[in-house]
């Protein structure tokens, strides 16, 4: 998606060898107009998939996920990372290792919000090693729901997340695909 690639090129900062910082428009400050555009693009790509729920993980997946859900006219559910006293005891849980934070998070979804009749679309901000997506897949499987695919804002093709999802036969739609960082610059997968 050209608009997204231009924003990454203009405002993204490469940290080390494998992390992209996009806190100007996605991970801290959020550009709502860009989120509307991302949501619309995901909704178009999964328009015929019969989605009944959009699922993400707090917090950075929420903005693109909510606009996707708005466009698809379905609810958005975000898996929570911390237990809250307001959360019921009847939950699905999975462990997700975050390589950017280098910690394992316990992600939690109340059983009322993903049901066997649901067709669930996963949305996330980044696909790196696929741990967040795998955690969400475990929850969808535990709920007996149908997984229709994963919509990823920024995929890093040099990490192993895509392979993991391909092996699980999950349809993946990424709006920007980064194949490398060279001298602090982003190289998109569709470039020569
Ligand atoms: P995975 O679970 O696929 O290894 O990583 C996905 C999660 O890690 C995303 O939800 C995102 O929060 C975080 N993440 C992975 N790579 C990056 C990155 O390059 N930049 C930022 N800002 N977050 C990342």
UniProtKB/TrEMBL annotation:
An annotated Gene Ontology molecular function: xanthine phosphoribosyltransferase activity
Compartments, record wording: Cytoplasm
Binding site for xanthine: 20, 27, 156
Residues bound to 5-phospho-alpha-D-ribose 1-diphosphate: 128-132
Catalytic activity reported: XMP + diphosphate = xanthine + 5-phospho-alpha-D-ribose 1-diphosphate
Pathway assigned to this chain's UniProt record: Purine metabolism; XMP biosynthesis via salvage pathway; XMP from xanthine: step 1/1
Pfam families: Pribosyltran
Any one biological process term the GO annotation gives: XMP salvage
Chief location: cytoplasm
Subunit structure: Homodimer.
PANTHER family referenced in this protein's UniProt entry, alphabetically: HYPOXANTHINE/GUANINE PHOSPHORIBOSYLTRANSFERASE (PTHR43864), XANTHINE PHOSPHORIBOSYLTRANSFERASE (PTHR43864:SF1)
UniProt function note: Converts the preformed base xanthine, a product of nucleic acid breakdown, to xanthosine 5'-monophosphate (XMP), so it can be reused for RNA or DNA synthesis.
Protein name, entry field: Xanthine phosphoribosyltransferase
Organism: Weissella halotolerans DSM 20190
Organism taxonomic ancestry: Bacteria, Bacillati, Bacillota, Bacilli, Lactobacillales
Gene: xpt
């Amino acid at each position: 998606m050209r608009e997204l690639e231009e924003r990454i090129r203009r405002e993204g900062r490469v940290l080390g060898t494998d992390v992209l910082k996009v806190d100007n428009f996605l991970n801290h400050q959020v550009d709502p107009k860009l989120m509307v555009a991302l949501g619309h693009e995901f909704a178009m790509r999964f328009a015929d998939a019969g989605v009944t729920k959009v699922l993400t993980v707090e917090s950075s997946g929420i903005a693109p996920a909510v606009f996707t859900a708005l466009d698809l006219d379905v609810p958005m559910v975000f898996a929570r990372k911390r237990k809250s006293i307001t959360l019921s005891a009847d939950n699905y849980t999975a462990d997700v290792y975050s390589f950017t934070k280098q910690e394992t998070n316990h992600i939690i979804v109340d059983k009322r919000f993903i049901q066997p009749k649901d067709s669930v679309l996963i949305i996330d901000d980044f696909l790196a090693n696929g741990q967040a997506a795998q955690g969400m897949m475990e929850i969808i499987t535990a709920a007996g729901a149908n997984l229709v695919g994963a919509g990823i804002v920024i995929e890093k093709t040099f990490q192993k997340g895509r392979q993991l999802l391909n092996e699980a036969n999950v349809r993946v739609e990424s709006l920007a695909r980064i194949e490398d960082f060279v001298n602090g610059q982003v190289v998109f997968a569709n470039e020569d």
